Protein: Transcription factor
Amino acid sequence: MARRSSSSISRVERNMIEKNRRKHMKDLIANLASIISLQPSKMSMPKILDQARSYIMQLQKNHEESLKRRKALLEGGDDQKRSNSAPESSSSSSRMLPIMNITSSDSALEVNLICGLTNRNFKLSEIISVLEEEGAEVIDATQVNAGDRVIYIIKCQVYKCSVSFSV
Structure:
């Protein structure tokens, strides 16, 4: 009889553990549903998980497309430079293509961008976003107007080593 009482205590404990696990899963699913703007009370758990998977895949696709656009934007300057090999006159210097200079040390990164006043083929916020997504924290960003040119100096602290540049 002692054996039955110990197994029934064990069974009660197992039931409580399982009940807590189910409640925890239900809370996690409700939290997931709220993140992706669903009403969990109106959907089954598999449907919520399927919607979350679709949502994550769409986010990933949007992120990849954004990175491709940024890469094309950054690489586009080099292609345009090669095709526009005619010397610039002083009146066309305000339409100059951006020039980027990157220097780095162990955990610091400095990006210098030079462009004309009227022709900026990039948004500074996008470049800062790319740097931050790649593991660099922007410490300082300075804009200097030098005649018909704008110079941006971005200083970063690198925390993870995923930032790579090829020349």
